[in-house]
Amino acid sequence: MNGRHLDLGELSLLQPTVHYICLTRGRPNRVWGPRAIPDCHLVYVVSGLAKLSIGEEERIVPPGHCAFYGVDSVTQILSTEEEPVTYYSLHFEWNTPSPTPMSLPQLLSGIRYTSASQLYGPATSYSVRVPGYGSVNIPHFFPFPGAEPLLLQLLREYDAKEPGYDFVLRGLLGRLLAALVRLQLGNTSHGELAKKIAPALKAIEKHPETDWSTAALAEMCGYNANYFTGVFKAATGTSPKSYIIANRMRRAKKLLLEEDTIEKAARKAGYSSLHYFCRHFKAETGQTPTQFKKQLFDL
């Protein structure tokens, strides 16, 4: 069954607006929904796993991956029991004249809770047009390398609400959406490229504390270092070193949320020096471990 499709028009002419952004930590088996929202929603998983249903699609969304859905799509988010999810929750519009965020009471009043029987109905789909490339469909589920730093900037700007913040939010959201569209344009051969580096990805995921060299990862996949680096960047959008650091930081964030002290999290993340862990964490995320633990909301 096909749902409603919205052609948003030419990307460069859109005026995107942030309505609300927060960092949400779910308890084990916490459920949001089934519900339909009055705007668009981007869910970016920082740690743990989310079981997410959008219309007829149901997926497990891991760290570094996103889910996107829009108006009138009935959805449900489940924080898994084994690995409770922490995620960025970004509510926005693709195109609206005013850059001013919607008030929280406005947003909450527009959320419509539904019965479970409505959950698997057709979801609204979206596309934008890019001159020279044609129409680009926005998928419901996708990996989004490079999204987290932009989401953190959006969250900080939204929370600070300094003069002109709505103008800045529009610019940052524009960058995020442009990155999303570029990702889709380059995704045609993404699956095949990812298969070529699968042994390296598995090793990085299984042993995040290891200081992997590019040469060692390339050897696992049967390539020389230069060729491997090119394939790796094409498949993931980043270099092997940057990917390893990002993976390590995802693990560190998960541990910070699970452990009662920063010292325990640092030790389990493989850092013998608390000072080095804190310095490294801030350099990579823009936040201290303490600030990260405090920035948890729930919508």
Summary of the model, kept short:
The chain has eleven helices and 13 strands.
* Span between termini: 30 Å
Write out the strand line-up for the largest beta sheet, numbering strands in chain order. Answer: 2-9-4-7-13
Query: Structural class, from helix and strand content?
Result: alpha+beta
Write down the CATH topology of the largest domain.
Answer: Jelly Rolls
Order of helices and strands: EEEEEEEEEHEEEEHHHHHHHHHH
Largest sheet: 5 strands, antiparallel
* Count of domain modules: 2
The level of helicity is 40-55%
Q: Roughly what is the average pLDDT, rounded to an integer? A: 89
User: CATH superfamily assignment of the largest domain?
Assistant: Regulatory protein AraC
Total helix count? 11
CATH class of the largest domain: Mainly Beta
Query: Uncertain segments of ≥5 residues (pLDDT<50)?
Result: none
Rg for CA atoms:
20 Å
Taken from the alpha-carbon principal axes, the silhouette is globular
| Overall CATH architecture of the largest domain | Sandwich
Oligomer: single chain
Number of extended strands? 13
- Percent strand equals 15-25%
Can you put this structure into words, describing what you see?
The chain has 299 residues and is α+β, with helices and mostly antiparallel strands. The protein has two domains: 181 residues, Jelly Rolls, CATH 2.60.120.280; 105 residues, Homeodomain-like (Arc Repressor Mutant, subunit A, Orthogonal Bundle). It has eleven helices and 13 strands. The protein has a five-stranded antiparallel beta sheet. A hairpin with a 2-residue loop joins strand 5 and strand 6. The protein is globular. The chain starts with a strand and ends in a 5-residue tail after the last helix. The mean pLDDT is 89. It comes from Paenibacillus solanacearum.
